[in-house]
Design a protein that fits this description.
Number of domains of chain C: 3
Number of helices of chain B: 13
Oligomer: heterotetramer
Chains: A alpha/beta (548), B mainly alpha (319), C alpha+beta (524), D mainly alpha (263)
Strand content of chain B: under 5%
Shape of chain B: globular
CATH architecture of the largest domain in chain C: Roll
CATH topology of one domain in chain B: MetI-like fold
Radius of gyration of chain C: 26 Å
Number of helices of chain C: 17
CATH class of the largest domain in chain C: Alpha Beta
CATH class of one domain in chain B: Mainly Alpha
Radius of gyration of chain B: 24 Å
Strand order of the largest sheet of chain C: 8-9-10-1-11-19-12
Largest sheet of chain C: 7 strands, mixed
Structural class of chain B: mainly alpha
CATH superfamily of one domain in chain B: MetI-like
Shape of chain C: globular
Helix content of chain B: over 70%
Distance between the termini of chain C: 64 Å
Order of helices and strands of chain B: HHHHHHHHHHHHH
Largest interface: B-C, 55 and 60 residues
Number of strands of chain B: 0
CATH superfamily of the largest domain in chain C: Dipeptide-binding Protein, Domain 3
Largest sheet of chain B: none
CATH topology of the largest domain in chain C: Dipeptide-binding Protein, domain 3
Chain lengths: 548, 319, 524, 263
Amino acid sequence: MTETSDLLQVDHLAISFAHPRPAVNDISLSIVEGEVLALVGESGSGKSMTARAVLGLLPPGARASGSIRFRGEEVLGLPEDQLARLRGRRIAMVFQEPQTALNPVRTVGWQIREVLRAHGRISAAAARKRAVELLEEVEIPEPERRIGHYPHQLSGGQKQRVVLALALANEPELLLADEPTTALDVTVQAEILALLRRIRDRTGTSILLITHNMGVVAEIADRVVVLRQGDVVETGTTREVFGAPQHAYTRQLLDSVLSLPAAGDFVHPVPAPEPPQEAPALRFDSVFVEYGSSRRGRAFPAVQGVSLDVAPGEVLGLVGESGSGKTTLGRLAAGLVPLAGGSVHVHGEDLFSSSPARRRELGRDLAFVHQDPEASLDPRMSVGASIREPLDIHRVGTPASRRARVAELLEAVRLPADVARRRPRELSGGQRQRIAMARALVLGPQLMIADEPTSALDVSVQADVLALFGELQQQFGFACIFISHDLAVVNSVADRVAVLRNGELVESGPVAQVFGSPSHPYTQRLLAAVPAAEPKEPKEPRPAHLAS
Amino acid sequence: MLSYLLRRVPSALGVLFVASFLIFLMLRLIPGDPVDALAGQDATDESRQAIREELGLDEPFWSQYLSWIGGLFRLDLGQSYRIGGSVRELLANGALNTVVLAVTALLIAVTLALVTSLVAVIRDSRWLNAMLAGLNTLGLALPTFASGLLLVLLFAVVFPLLPSGGTPPDGYLARPDITVQYLLLPAICLALPVWAGLTRFLTESLRSQMRQPYVTTARAAGVSRRRLVIRHALPNALPSTVTVLGIQVGTLLGGAVLVEQIFTWPGLGSLIESAISGRDYPVVQVLLLLSVAVFVITQLLTDVLQAWLDPRIRIGGAR
Amino acid sequence: MTAVTPPRPFARLRLLAIAVALCLMSACTSAVGEQNDRGSTGDPVDGGTLRVAAKTDLIPKSVFGQSSDGGNALIGLVYDSLVEYPHDSLEPRPALATSWKVAPDGRSIHLELRDDVTFHDGKPFTSEDVKFSIQTIADPAWSVQLQRTAAAVTGFDTSDPHAITLKFDRPLSNILDLLDIVPIIDEDTFDQVKAGTGYNGTGAFRFAGWKPNSELTFDRFDDYWGGKPHLDGVDVKIVPDPQAQASGLRSGQYDLLLGTTARDAETFGKDKKYAVLDFEGATQQTYVGFNLDNPDLKDVKLRQAVAYAVDRERILDEVYRGKGIAQNLSWSPSSPAYDEAAAHHYDRDTAKAKDLAAQVGKVPTLPLQYIAGDPTAEAVAQIVQANLADIGITVDLQPVEYAQMYQRLVGADFDGLWIFGHTYAQYTPATLPVSAYPFNAEHNASNFLSDQYAEHADAAWGAPDPDGDVAEDAYAALNADMIDNVWLTDLVTFWPRIVTSSSVHGIDYTKRTELILRDAWKDQ
Amino acid sequence: MMRPKAWVGLGLVGFVVLLGIVGPWLAPYGPIDQIEGANLVGPSSAHWLGTDEVNRDVLSRTLSGIRIDLLVVFLAVPVGAAVGVLVGLVTSWWNVTDVITQRVFDVVLAFPTLIFAIALSAFIGPGVWTIALVIVSLEVPVFGRLVRTSVRSVREMPYVEAAQVTGAGSWWVLRRHVLPNSLEPLTVQLAVSMSVAVFIEAAMSFLGIGVQAPHPSLGSLIKDGTTLMYDAPFLALGPLALVLALVLGLLLISQSLSEAHRD
């Protein structure tokens, strides 16, 4: 099965650690020149470790066996100095998190020069010239000016472009891209994917793309390798895999991808929920929020004049890209950030002008679910104590009745009762998010604010949690602000949706209406940028957007 | 950058003012009247009163305090009760010796800490790490006076290579080679705990920087380990190390009290001891305030240095 | 195009390290070696600087009063006195005065002065300087213990610049003590004395500089009337820690130590490389004092019990290494007032002590104050504490810094018991009860006031001849006062010991423990 | 799972503590008993560590001296730490009290420890309680600051926000979330502070402002030994070894705690 034209050939790669930890069992794959190969899998599938093994970048304590050949030569187990000659020069790598992948105290130009110098002497002038070229190549405007900038002066998209420039600096034959767009907003993600494709087309560099996002795969990959817990599940061209998945796991992955309504799906407006009989669960009346201290003259607006209603029992999706103010709006509803203008009414009561005691009382009807499952539970408290805490705060019932309520809630979020005695760190991310939801619901709140509750989860887990959320919402009938950057997620859970941009409301309305026939150009662009989970025919590149 | 500095100045001044008041108040509460020590057994009430007036001790507390503070601004630190000369001149000599000692110790500590932690992280060999960790812990665990006496015993008495104490006889500049020999033992003694603390912190923070994604990025681009440590990780580890260094500098003056005693180094440490025991208020209060000022200024400098080393603070977040 | 060479930081560091090492090994001279390699020829040679380590620094405001090593060195080197006592007797020798005669009524003294003496600044020495010097000492501001004696000199006849007649308002048996002790100072430059900036004397060395807490430096005075000194100069370094002094001598940094402990001196004495000089005659005393203002100490039986309880022999043997005399009296053995029987009246007798203590009844815990940070004082205090524990008296040790200790002595406000040293016992006996703080009959550190004692002190002071019968009677009465009243009890009479490197010769000293270095020399 | 480092540290500290507890019963003599004729004799079967210049058995004094250090380490430090934690916890929640307290801490921390100790001993006299007071006043701001850092970071944690949204008050959050989550850095600091306390005791005794004669502490025994460095070099060895063991043990414990905390 060995083909001589293979650029990279991985055979029976196995990676193990001294202590139990997700590892690689048996992975074989190959890339030919000029090809984009997608390595797909959920967390723990071993996709990142495989890529790191190619460059000898495994964490300390990892042992790899099998074979990795680059242009027919074995690279696994090469000494550090020989690997250093390979790295960057012939095989380069791009990492997931552009925020941390660049040295924060060095300029962009310095970092590019440093990478160039790693593979031979180069004069300062030549290095500068090459740096400008590279920044042009990754489509960063004003490259002459940008090379003097520090990473923190660049946007997330620009940073990822710089990381790409670093990888391309020494014209490698193979580019390993480890989730290069996961941390980016959808519109930026679309631009970076387009850029990757153009680079491949222009330079013939092969790309090994590691991702969990089937949409991204469909968008760019020629072939796909599906991994699951360290083993290859399925290999094939993108068309084959998407069209006729052979393995049940591949099918499951594809099924759990949420989709948006196709353009024009919306024809008849769904009858709007009956006009509210009672006061809205939450009302924003042209609210303003500022960050920073106005006293020091460095306040900047985070939310500007947003007015929104959430009816009782209604789920309002709040979407927007980073910096749009969606999280701030959610925190405002919870009373966690100070109000700079306008008013917030919870069940008709003005939240910010009520007394602290009254606000604590209002808290009984309010719940907050945070994005990060790592941090949303107190690591020092048992799961049961965490769920019980709101009952303890408001001294609801007897200890026995509180325990009973905890058991009830655990059942509602479909977790075994004995979980109550465990500590958060013993649980998976999905389980922790369920517990966070159970805690949020323990007092039977009227309003829940859910800030990206599923964004840190794997797709299949996300699908389960969203399904559970839907059921719980049915069962408990609370109103909810559901914040997400993922339009498909909002599509699957929300009744209505509000689109935010730079702290302002762009448009709002029933989900089917906004997503089906968006009226605002920004909403349209947002929707267009979402990669569809089906392979496309090769087509001419989309107009390149300016880097954000 | 400048505004960053300016924002810190008021709180530093506040600390100094509060400290000056506390010092002044505390010294007045200490039992023992300086006039007793000066007047003698055959003193009459009149002569005691004359001394009292001469020293300004007959004035009310507040006016004494204000005239002291006022004098400080004119660099008039007052007159020593016991020695008789102006406090400023008295301090100048001691301060020079202490500064020379402390700065040398600091240079030794910082240089050695940089070298040892860089070598440790670059080589990353098991036995080297174990050896350095052992030395390090010993440096932290050995009390200053014990290490000082050991140094004297070893290098001055058993093997008489270096002087056992004192300052160079002809001043610091006349014979630099002699000066080095006089400075070596006390400076090493004072530097030892600073070196140990600094090395431990810097090594840890270099190691944690080496685990950062940006290092992986550079490594994946083929940058050698030595360059990764020195050119990439070090500049990132420095800002926080500077803070630790700032705290260490603050403790140097306290350590100097011991080292100066062991090596009969006539600096501020020995001056403050004799001044406190002699109830020489004008000297004591200036010395105490000086030690607070050193601390406050060091903190200010560390803040500035840290900001300067970190472009995120230096240049600010504006895109 | 400039090629960029990657820097090699370790290479640079290595170079630097090698450079430093090379410098240390070859090019530079050793600060230690330079001072050690010297051979001795046995004959006096000129040149060299004597490096002295002193425990305590000069205090300009009390340079003539509170004794300190630095101040003593200054007085001994820079100033001369009119007469000089030899170490072992009270028969004075001429110094700045060539001859003297006390009037038959004991109320005046006439002195002939040298006419070839100049101060360091070139000013000739005259009788006016004598007058100014004595008047200065009489000024209470200097807190000199001999102030009372100096103040009794009321008339000065300075008509002859090279002779002076001093008149007294009462007979002064200890006038020669005063003339031995008073340094002859210069009025014109006197402002500098209090500020510590200048000391203009007639002595063998001129004051060159003072760095507080650090060092005093002196240069040879070529025009010294006693002949040019051998040494080029003297450096007195302030080294408070006896341990550091010992280390410094061993490592060759000092030639002479003023502050060794008895035990260090003993150790050095066994080593040929060092010499130990006993300042015999310049005796000092360590004593236990009682503040009678403390109600617990009012009862003389208790004080007597303490005097019987203390183990003087042990203190002498273990702390002072046998160099001295264990006695309860306050005189040097050479003093005319010394009485062998009285000196051993309170030899250790635990039974008597217990008996006396029992008569007093329950004694509360007594505070015992001593010099903080002085190993000798601390050892003595602990032995005394243990001795008193043996007779059922509990003592609480309270270390007090030297300066505070001195202040309490002057102000007579110790809390209870204290251990300190006194001197002046080697002088004319009258000097002690008239001038020394612990004994001064008018007001002393113990707050012991007795008309009888004052009378006896006065009698000794006024005796025409310090060795005469009148004086002898007064001394006997004083001894009886001391034994009966025990406001303090002496522990040990000892003499200071200094340690030098064996390359130093010709060291001399005054009865007041001031160094005399006019004939000292150092092997080159 | 415990690291070997932690075991060694615990072993060293435990050894010293055990000696301090049972030592006085094992000691052949009383700590201040003066033995006739035994003036500064070297180590022998009668006096394992020799005798000092006033004829006391150094072994007995060392065993008794440990107790002073144990008092300082296990009483003064925890008291200072407790006060500091309480003050830091309470004041750092509200901005006004926080600013005031932090300024006060700034001032206290601005004095070098030993200089502060010298000044304080001039004020209240030397002794064990002076050492304890120096340590307490040093540790209060140290722990106050540490807790403040924890409060500031924990109060931003999502689980705290979740509780606050539900209606939890400041006290609730401080007690239920902030304090428990600050404990780890506090235990590390506690071990570090304890080792510093041993240093402070030793340094103060060395300067003569610590434990006063005739009572022994490890620091004063080392000082006594060093003043007789040439005549009786054996005197300081025993106490010095114990100080090293105690400090080393505490440092190892703190290091392994912070390593465990980091992993």
